[in-house]
Automatic annotation (TrEMBL):
SUPFAM superfamilies: PR-1-like. Residues 97-208 form the SCP domain. InterPro entries: CAP_dom (IPR014044), CAP_sf (IPR035940). The lineage of its organism: Bacteria, Pseudomonadati, Bacteroidota, Chitinophagia, Chitinophagales. Pfam families: CAP. This is SCP domain-containing protein.
């Protein structure tokens, strides 16, 4: 099987700064699953949060809409556009998906790209500062089969960044959303780095792959 690599178009939304509503109760099944993954302890705080919300949404798509997305749409009404309508339909229809397992290679590739872009405050994108594209990075890391990458700039909360990836406002092919809801993708790595010297602003990378 030949490698099939994909990366989603980049889209970033400017929002007013305000408190981001979050569910009051955590899903202990998701937390226990994540903590049991090899390499979980090496993830940053932002990486752990991104892993939690990614797997929470996979396990509880309807609850993710009701408990996380809907309150954010009410707090940020400019996000309540057609993309929100299609996202609600997708989450209500998809049903629970298998939670991602951490892959130490993907953790390394995600963290490496986060460090490369974030610490240098380079232009946001899937290409490394040395010009290597996503497919080249995956091939060099030894990822043999299908893989995808999502990137986000977290400036208010990790959950808000996650919701923006799902909404995919301005991304014609809904590539971030499709990746997050893809049942074929089984393994994941996540990395984060402060974006330049900007306080409380982090560049977050999610790398995904089929079962290797």
């Amino acid at each position: 099987m030949l490698p099939v690599f994909g990366s989603a178009q980049v889209a970033f939304i400017e929002l007013e700064s305000k408190t981001v509503p979050e569910p009051n109760v955590k899903d202990t099944a998701v937390e226990n699953w994540n903590r049991a993954q090899p390499g979980y302890g090496r993830l940053s705080k932002e990486g752990r949060e991104m892993l939690y919300w990614t797997n929470y949404a996979r396990r509880n798509p309807v609850e993710f809409w009701n408990n996380a997305i809907q309150p954010i749409l009410e707090a940020f009404p400019t996000l309540n556009r057609n993309e929100a309508v299609t996202l609600k339909a997708a989450l209500m229809m998809v049903g629970p998906l298998p939670m991602f397992v951490l892959n130490k290679v993907l953790v390394a590739t995600a963290q490496s790209h986060a460090d490369d872009i974030g610490k240098k405050k380079a232009p946001l994108g899937h290409n490394s500062t040395n010009g290597a594209n996503f497919g080249s990075r995956m091939t060099a890391a030894g990822i043999k089969y299908c893989a995808n990458e999502n990137i986000s700039l977290c400036s208010q909360s990790v959950l808000l960044s996650m919701v923006l990836l799902y909404l995919d406002i301005g991304v014609a092919d809904l590539g971030h959303r499709k990746t997050l809801l893809n049942p074929v993708l089984h393994e994941m790595g996540v990395g984060s780095a402060q974006y330049g010297k900007e306080e409380n602003q982090y560049f977050i990378v999610q790398d995904f792959a089929c079962k290797q």
